[in-house]
Amino acid sequence: MSTAHNSRTILVAHPSPELYGSDRVLIESVASLVARGHRVVLVLPKQGPLVVAVEETGATVELLATPVLRKSLLRPKAFLGFVGESFQALISGSKLVRNLRPSAVVVNTATIPLWILISRMHGIRSLLHIHESERDSPRLLRVALALPAALTNKVVLNSQYSTDSLLQVAPWLKRKTTIIYNGVPGPELASVPRQDLSDPVNVLFVGRLSERKGAHTAVAAIKKLQEQGVNVRLQFLGAVFEGYEWFEEQLRVQVQALPHPEHVTFLGFQSSVWPHYENCDIALVPSTIDEPFGNTAVEAVLAERPVVVSRVGGLPEAVHGLDCAVLVQPDNPGALAKGIQQIINNWPQFKEAAGKSRELAVVRYDTKTYGASFAHEVEAILP
User: Fold this and answer.
1) Closest to 110 (Cα-Cα) out of 64, 173, 155
2) DSSP string over 130-145
3) Domain map of the chain by residue range?
4) Which of 288, 200, 216 is nearest to 254 (CA)?
5) 261 vs 41, 188, 269, 375, CA distance in Å?
6) φ and ψ of 69, to 5 deg
7) Out of 1.10.3720.10, 3.40.50.2300, 3.40.50.2000, 3.10.180.10, which CATH number does the structure's domain 4-183+366-380 have?
8) I need a labelling partner for 160 at 20 to 30 A (CA). Which of 15, 201, 227, 251 fits?
9) What is the CA radius of gyration of the chain?
10) Best CA proximity match to 299, nearest among 316, 319, 271
11) Using one digit for the tens of pLDDT, what is the confidence trace for 22-48?
12) What digits encode the pLDDT tens for the residues 77-119?
């Protein structure tokens, strides 16, 4: 274990200043390295809620715009813009590295490979922490995301599913890979679900408002339940990516077509999710395509709430053995509505299962266990 007298400077690069899945995991990663006595410098593209959360761990933050790999780069014009932005970021990033002289670079997500190149150019050992699977993406994009990992010293992934996805297109990386399940912090004290599920039934969606996360599927499922006479209310806790405001507008139009549109509420982004879990009865994680892990599903279990989860990607792996979770076919409003109805119809059993599942999840996704494992992998690459 490192101590203050032999601490090293570790640069951590991350593509977003928000506070969603991989962003929250990053806080635990940084905190574990700071706790070992290391000086941690986090590089973010701009200001955001993550900055304060990371600074509270004792790390410092540097702002430096870094281009992010996205599917849109498959278009020639977008790719040319990416190349230009990368050149500028390469110059700025190299200057920062020369000033900081880090002993290691941690690249948090495969979408910012430029930091792998920068670390290689300066002879600095690096670790890539992959939070993506992208199994449904074009093979060209998957290979593009995987190739930079060949230049790293270690690759950490958050599930067997994401590992299998990577090795499908880059089997030569197997010797470098290690699986560490995300450490997911829960509430200090979870509230017990209602004894009797009287009307209305309160349903909560936490996460990005996007087609990928299935927000539209949630609305369509609520429509089916309302048409059947079920008194159900839905809250959305989250916001869209910048530039995707059109999706929220489209979602609000969809809500207005419900029998009771007044029973759907948009709460926007909130830094603390626990008060909202406390006020809900059932959580939804209706992702439509690949999820490498499923932080939100685990958060619902830690909040001691039954949850309906899409059977897609790494989500079944994340809730395996947690009996308060109901798995349903993805992108299927009817299946999602039936999953909600199953919990309503069997409330006493799911209420009991929620307590037992929370006990299992607290141990399986313990943040201290995660932090110790992650810090060990980083320290293993230090010169």
Assistant:
1) 155
2) E----TTS-HHHHHHH
3) 4-183+366-380, 201-364
4) 216
5) 46, 34, 20, 48
6) -70, 125
7) 3.40.50.2000
8) 15
9) 21
10) 319
11) 899 999 999 999 999 999 999 999 999
12) 656 666 778 888 999 999 999 999 999 999 998 889 899 999 9
Q: Which CATH superfamily is domain 201-364 in?
A: Glycogen Phosphorylase B; (3.40.50.2000)
Of 300, 305, 304, which Cα lies nearest the Cα of 315? 300
> Which token pair is 91?
């110059």
Which residue matches tokens 């494992």?
A: 373
Encoded amino acid at 348, one letter: P
Distance between CA atoms of residues 200 and 263, nearest Å = 10
* Cβ atoms 22, 50 nearer than 8 A: no
The set of residues, in sequence order, having a beta carbon less than 8 Å from that of 272 and lying 6+ positions away, is: none
Instruction: Please name the amino acid found at residue 370.
Output: Y
Name the CA dihedral angle for 358, 286, 332, 354, rounded to a multiple of 10 degrees: 10
